[in-house]
Specification:
142 residues; Trna Endonuclease, Chain: A, domain 1; alpha+beta; 5 helices; SseB family protein; 6 strands
């Protein structure tokens, strides 16, 4: 399994944003898909079993927010004032999920009307969830 460091994701993202080339975007997706886990933030609830990965609305569409590492998830959660992500002790609950299970979950969310996914919000990238099967096929065949 290829272990990709957060700095590698940043470099690949910067290259993809500056070049706009398909192969650079593919390299970014390949790195993200090679991670052992993806990470979701969740709002604080009284009952921990009620917590679900955060889906926010941007431009009138529901998006699921996910992160390539726990630190980015916590940084984003802390950057949103009154977002409900940080508990009284200053902790952020991050749900870490096997990447393949996360993909299945995202496809299920799409069937429930969630439009897209936002990776590493604040400095990241996004895609409509319906594009995931084509992205997976492209990356695996590339």
């Amino acid at each position: 399994m290829d272990l990709t460091a957060p700095e590698d994701i940043d470099l690949l993202l910067a290259k993809a944003k500056s070049s706009g080339k398909t192969e650079d975007l593919s390299a970014l997706w390949k790195a993200a898909l090679s991670l052992p886990q993806w990470h979701f933030i969740t709002r604080q609830t009284a009952n921990i079993e009620d917590r679900k990965p955060f889906v926010g609305v941007m431009d009138g569409k529901p998006w699921v927010f996910l992160f390539t590492d726990r630190q980015r998830a916590q940084e984003y959660a802390r950057a949103i004032p009154n977002g409900g992500f940080v508990d009284e002790s200053g902790s952020v609950l991050v749900i870490s999920t096997d990447t393949h299970k996360a993909l299945d979950y995202l496809l299920a969310l799409s069937a429930q009307g969630v439009y897209g996914l936002r990776f590493n919000e604040l400095n990241g990238w996004f895609s409509p969830i319906q594009n995931l099967p084509a992205i997976l096929q492209h990356v695996q065949n590339g």
